[in-house]
Structure formats: C-alpha cells, structure tokens
C-alpha cells in the first residue's frame, strides 16, 4: 500500500515537468462505454444480458467486430463503475466481482486483444467510486500496477469522494504511476467536470499535461435536452477550453447515445455532427445487439468519422448564435473546414436560411461544399456567395467545405 504523503512528494517532482507523453489518442479515441446505458446494474439474476459483467462486454465486443464498428475505428471497450467487490482483498488489491467476472480481468483483456480491441477500466481518485466501490486514494501505485498486469489499455479516473483541491495532486499522481508501469494506458480524467460545477475555470493547461482526455461537464443522459445542454455549454468555450485539444489531448463532452431511446433520427444526426466538430471522443453507450440500421449507419458514416478523426486535431467552435440557430465550424487538414448549422427550433417546419461561408469564419477564397451525411454536392462558393439552406426542426446542416 502506498500512502498519500509519498505520492505527494513524487507528484510534486513531476508536476509541470513535461507534457503527457504516452503516444496515445493522437486522434479522439473511439469505442464503447457501458455507463450511460447500463449504469450500475448488477442484477445479473434478473437481467443477465444487461448487468455489468464480462458477458456484457464480450457481447458488445462481438458486435463491434461483426458489424464493422471495430474496422471503422471503435476499438475501446470500456468498463465503468461497479465492477469490483465492495472491499479490497487482504493485500489491498481490487478484486473483480467473481460472480460477474468469473474469468477475471486478465482473461477479459486477452479476449479483447484477440479480437483487435482494447479494454478500458474505471476507478476513482477519491476514497470510493461514485457507486460506493473502493477508490484509488492511497492505492494509486498498486492500482496502476494491477491494471497494467491485467493488460488494461485505458483508465477513466472519476472524482467522487474527493475534493477539487486534491485533484491537482491526485490526477497527476495517477498519471505518474500509470507511466511507471511501462504500459501505455490511455488516461481519462474527470478532473474539470467537478470544477465547472462550481462555476470555476479548471486548470486546463495542467490537465492537458497529465490526461489524454477529460470530462468537462455534466454526465450525458438519454435525452435531447441533455445533448443540447452539453452543446450549449461547449459553445460558450469557457476558459478557451477548445484550445487545449490536439493530438494526445481531448475535451470530452461524454458518450454517444445514438441507437438508444431518447433521440429522434435527426437528433442523432445532430449529436454525431457536433461531436465530430468538437473533436470529441466517440464512446458509444448503447446496445449494439439491438440497434436500428439507420443508427448503425450513422455511427459508421465514414465521412462523419473522418471529420472527427482529422489528424490536425483542432477542436471546432461556435461562431454565431441567434434564437434557435447556431453556426459552428472546425478547421480540417489541408485548409478545408467542417461547418454545421444547428436548428434547435421545434415549432413548425424547416427553417430557411441564407448564409455565406464568411459566417463560419472560413479562411480562403473558394470552397467545394458537400453535405456530410448523404455526401450530396451543395455547390462551389466563394466566401461571400449566398448559400440557401433548409434545416428541419432539431436537425443540422452538416457539410465539408473543401478548399479549392
Ligand atoms: C512515460 O513518460 C515518458 C516521459 O514523458 C515517456 O517518454 C514514456 O513514453 C512514457 N511511458 C509510458 C508507458 O507512458
Ligand atoms: C480566452 O481568449 C480570449 C481571446 O484571446 C482572451 O481574451 C481571454 O482572456 C481568454 N480567457 C481565458 C480564461 O484564458
Ligand atoms: C466538387 O465536389 C464534387 C463532389 O462532391 C465534384 O463532383 C466536383 O467536381 C467538385 N468541383 C470542383 C470544382 O472541384
């Protein structure tokens, strides 16, 4: 067991010394994460196919492979809260619940690796996880080594049962011990999410020096209001958070709920478009065993994914907002841009808009504009040419303006 004072000393020597350099997440990570859809369902007796267990992760992994998601880039299979026993063993080790993970974590990681996938796990910086399972406080080195020994590829470290004052020590300490294992482990921090709730600007520079990705804001739920709440918040770009994104470092507006219950088809398009513009991690939280073909096609849309994964890694921003309309754009490699107009309105029919590429803050002279979802040619425009758009209620116009 490693006591906190030792961690403190070690952490202080590394703080600010160098940026996170684990070679991972050069583009936003993609995969599947259980939390939003399955939460802390541990009732395997009554819901054997829905409970947090090795069966659930294996079943979703099988769909990732069989239905083309893995080949489209969705390679992480991430466990969230509620996987271990309520107590550590006599040596202080975390123990996967043997009733729900009878093969153990090493076997589950091996299973993922044999299929070309990666396994992610969850812990907490504080004394307990949000669901009341053992947290990593006082056990950072031991837990990092346990995860590495199991062959874990990604860690989400939550921030319950801690204080925001401890974050600046605790999160870098885990970064240090993850690095010390010698295994490249993607590191997702919930650090800023607990600070923005207190109306403060998180220390993004320090966060980016220690974490590959970080949850900035409220947890997503299965609804349009949840998605739009997140979009509105990111549109404000408080603390210029978008500037801290880039290869190796990403803001995380939370999971993709495409294929769940709460969004209409056009609203699912909005989430995909906006998460691509925001250079967000694409972690689906849905049931890939039971998903409509139209949702699957959206999740697999190559043009949407290419924008999300643009190698330059610049996060897009909101340029303009008036009543129910927002203009967003994201610079892409080669001088091109992704542009989006979101219609939040839900009264009446489509909104007709006349816009110019100048409205999206584009830089250049002439662009070839193609709608992304259907790959439909829109036209060739200079910055001042008028483009007429019709946008359905709660839908988005999403296009690539390719530099000519
Ligand atoms: C650990 O950090 C060093 C220095 O930043 C880096 O070169 C190395 O690749 C890191 N190793 C892992 C496993 O993350
Ligand atoms: C954000 O950027 C603007 C424009 O460069 C600058 O004036 C402002 O101080 C920045 N805000 C923060 C919190 O860094
Ligand atoms: C614009 O893109 C379309 C495909 O969407 C292509 O057919 C057309 O030739 C392009 N025009 C120019 C001027 O590049």
Description of the structure:
- With 404 residues, the protein is an alpha/beta fold.
- It folds into 2 domains: 303 residues, TIM Barrel (Alpha-Beta Barrel), CATH 3.20.20.70; 87 residues, Immunoglobulin-like (Sandwich), CATH 2.60.40.
- The strands form 3 sheets. Strands 7-6-5-4-3-2-1-8 form an 8-stranded parallel beta sheet. It has a 6-stranded antiparallel beta sheet with strand order 9-10-11-16-13-14, covered by helices on one side.
- The longest helix has 18 residues.
- The chain is globular.
- It starts with a helix and ends with a strand.
- 47% of the residues are buried.
- The N terminus is likely disordered.
- The site of one 2-acetamido-2-deoxy-beta-D-glucopyranose (NAG) has 7 residues, from loops.
In short:
The protein has helices at residues 4-14, 35-38, 54-66, 69-72, 105-114, 140-150, 164-181, 191-196, 204-210, 224-236, 265-277, 293-299, 302-308, and strands spanning 30-33, 76-78, 118-124, 154-158, 186-189, 213-215, 250-252, 282-284, 317-322, 325-331, 337-343, 351-355, 366-371, 377-382, 387-391, 395-403. By secondary structure, it is α/β, with parallel strands linked by helices.
Chain-wise SSE layout:
Layout: H1 4-14, E1 30-33, H2 35-38, H3 54-66, H4 69-72, E2 76-78, H5 105-114, E3 118-124, H6 140-150, E4 154-158, H7 164-181, E5 186-189, H8 191-196, H9 204-210, E6 213-215, H10 224-236, E7 250-252, H11 265-277, E8 282-284, H12 293-299, H13 302-308, E9 317-322, E10 325-331, E11 337-343, E12 351-355, E13 366-371, E14 377-382, E15 387-391, E16 395-403
Parallel strand pairs: 1-2, 1-8, 2-3, 3-4, 4-5, 5-6, 6-7
Antiparallel strand pairs: 9-10, 10-11, 11-16, 12-15, 13-14, 13-16
Helix pairs in contact: 1-7, 3-5, 6-7, 11-12, 11-13
The structure holds 2-acetamido-2-deoxy-beta-D-glucopyranose (3 copies).
């Amino acid at each position: 067991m490693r006591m906190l004072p030792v961690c403190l000393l070690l952490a202080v020597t590394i703080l600010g010394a160098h940026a996170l350099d684990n070679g991972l997440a050069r583009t936003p990570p993609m995969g599947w994460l259980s939390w939003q859809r399955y939460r802390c369902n541990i009732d395997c007796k009554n819901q054997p196919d829905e409970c947090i267990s090795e069966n659930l992760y294996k079943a979703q992994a099988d769909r990732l492979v069989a239905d083309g998601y893995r080949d489209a880039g969705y390679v992480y299979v991430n466990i969230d809260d509620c996987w271990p026993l309520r107590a550590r063993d006599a040596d202080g080790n975390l123990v996967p619940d043997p009733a729900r993970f009878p093969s153990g974590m090493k076997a589950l990681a091996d299973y993922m690796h044999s299929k070309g996938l990666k396994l992610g796990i969850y812990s907490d910086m504080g004394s307990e996880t949000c669901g009341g399972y053992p947290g990593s406080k006082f056990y950072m080195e031991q837990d990092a080594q346990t995860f590495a020994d199991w062959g874990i590829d990604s860690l989400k470290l939550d921030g319950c049962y801690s204080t925001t004052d401890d974050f600046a020590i605790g999160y870098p300490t885990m970064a240090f011990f993850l690095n010390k294992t010698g295994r490249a482990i993607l590191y997702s921090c919930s650090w800023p999410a607990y600070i923005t709730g207190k109306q403060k600007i998180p220390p993004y520079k320090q966060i980016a020096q220690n974490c590959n990705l970080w949850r900035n804001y409220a947890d997503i739920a299965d609804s349009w209001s949840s998605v739009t709440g997140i979009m509105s918040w990111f549109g404000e770009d408080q603390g210029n958070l978008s500037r801290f994104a880039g290869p190796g470092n990403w803001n995380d507006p939370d999971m993709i709920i495409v294929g769940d219950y709460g969004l209409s088809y056009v609203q699912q398009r909005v989430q995909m478009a906006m998460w691509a513009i925001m250079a967000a991690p694409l972690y689906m939280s849905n049931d890939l065993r039971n998903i409509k073909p139209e949702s699957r096609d959206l999740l697999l849309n190559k043009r949407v994914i290419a924008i999300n994964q643009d190698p330059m890694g610049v996060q897009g921003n909101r340029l303009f907002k008036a009543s129910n309309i927002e203009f967003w754009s994201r610079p892409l490699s080669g001088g091109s841009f992704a542009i989006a107009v979101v219609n939040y309105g839900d009264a009446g029919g489509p909104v007709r808009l006349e816009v110019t590429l100048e409205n999206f803050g584009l830089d250049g002279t002439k662009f070839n504009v193609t709608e992304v979802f259907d790959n439909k040619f829109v036209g060739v425009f200079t910055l001042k040419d008028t483009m007429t758009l019709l946008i359905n209620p709660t839908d988005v116009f999403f296009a690539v303006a390719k530099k000519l």
